[in-house]
Amino acid sequence: MKMEPILRLEEIKKAYGDRKILKSLSFSIHPGEIVGL
């Protein structure tokens, strides 16, 4: 049985002025996973 993620983020982008910090960050978290950022 495939479990659906409890959190999914897709194509996150962040910039400070003209400086790009993140470009197209994507990830998902499934039940029972422990994730640190």
Rg, Cα atoms, Å: 13 Å
Mean residue pLDDT: 92
Sheet/helix structural class: mainly beta
Give me the count of strands.
2
Count of helix runs = 0
Range of helix content: under 10%
Helix and strand run = EE
3D shape:
elongated
Count of distinct structural domains: 1
Largest sheet: 2 strands, antiparallel
Low-confidence stretches: none
| Fraction in beta strands | over 45%
What order do the strands of the largest sheet run in, or round the barrel if closed? 1-2
CA(first)-CA(last) distance: 28 Å
What does this protein structure show overall?
The chain contains no helices and two strands. The protein is an all-beta fold and 37 residues long. It has one domain (1-30). A two-stranded antiparallel sheet has the order 1-2. The protein starts with 6 loop residues before the first strand and ends in an 8-residue tail after the last strand.
